[in-house]
């Protein structure tokens, strides 16, 4: 399917690896000029080289997207994108009793206030152009809270509520806001979690990864490319009537009839 994205521009936050990189790759393959961000400038440039090898126009904006400086750098490189993919690292796990106010504020800043700030910065130019696609990478924990991730559960549901309301206000301008909810995807983050589990249980990394996959109906991790493809479709010309949705990509792990 031709997605109608050639010559569009995208700002993909936190995209030197993992799901953000997968979204940038899928968009680049569709002829989108992408700006990617990440804190480690070397890793970011390496990712950009791989995207350029696909024939894409690629710009980089090194920096921490959860800071004003990082956001300013991203927006200076790509001030009026047609497509915004909001992403940042997830908060640490733990017992809610152990988190300080600073921990809560950091999670709210990274996974709620940062995406809102980015949307605020680009929304009016999208409205003026009568085209905009905003995708927030959130988490399956929005639908099915994960007890060990109270910071994530809380911040991401806040963003879900915000997006749900705003998306209905801007849909008439052909600007859509949707959320993609990853279940377990094979990224560095999942490997780190499995590595910690392997050490705790005295098993190999492969065994820990297999144990985490086996409970999923698909009996495997999602591949980042599958996530990127869903993201590219949500950004397509054809997806203008998909508004304010929360799309779960979890291999069927969330068990419900509808
Ligand atoms: P990942 O493999 O750890 O990749 C994270 C990417 O984001 C890297 O490029 C990293 O580069 C960049 N990054 C992290 N924090 C950043 C920041 N503050 N500013 C700029 N760039 C930043 O993570 P992932 O698995 O792709 O996950 C992406 C998001 O989805 C996270 O919020 C995660 O919690 C959520 N999620 C993931 C899964 C999963 O199964 N993978 C499941 C549910 C939710 P630098 O380190 O160089 O900055």
What hetero molecules are in the model? NADP nicotinamide-adenine-dinucleotide phosphate
Outline, from the CA principal axes? globular
Multimeric state: single chain
Radius of gyration: 18 Å
Main sheet summary = 7 strands, parallel
What is the rounded distance between the termini? 27 Å
How do the strands of the widest beta sheet line up side by side?
3-2-1-4-5-6-7
Succession of helices and strands: EHEHEHEHEHEHHHE
Q: Strand share of the residues? A: 5-15%
Count of beta strands: 7
Low-confidence stretches: none
The helix content is 40-55%
Structural class: alpha/beta
H/I helix tally: 8
Mean pLDDT: 96
Topology:
Elements: E1 9-12, H1 18-29, E2 33-38, H2 41-52, E3 58-62, H3 68-77, E4 83-86, H4 101-129, E5 132-137, H5 150-170, E6 175-182, H6 188-201, H7 205-214, H8 224-234, E7 246-249
Parallel strand pairs: 1-2, 1-4, 2-3, 4-5, 5-6, 6-7
Helix pairs in contact: 1-8, 4-5, 6-7
The chain binds NADP nicotinamide-adenine-dinucleotide phosphate.
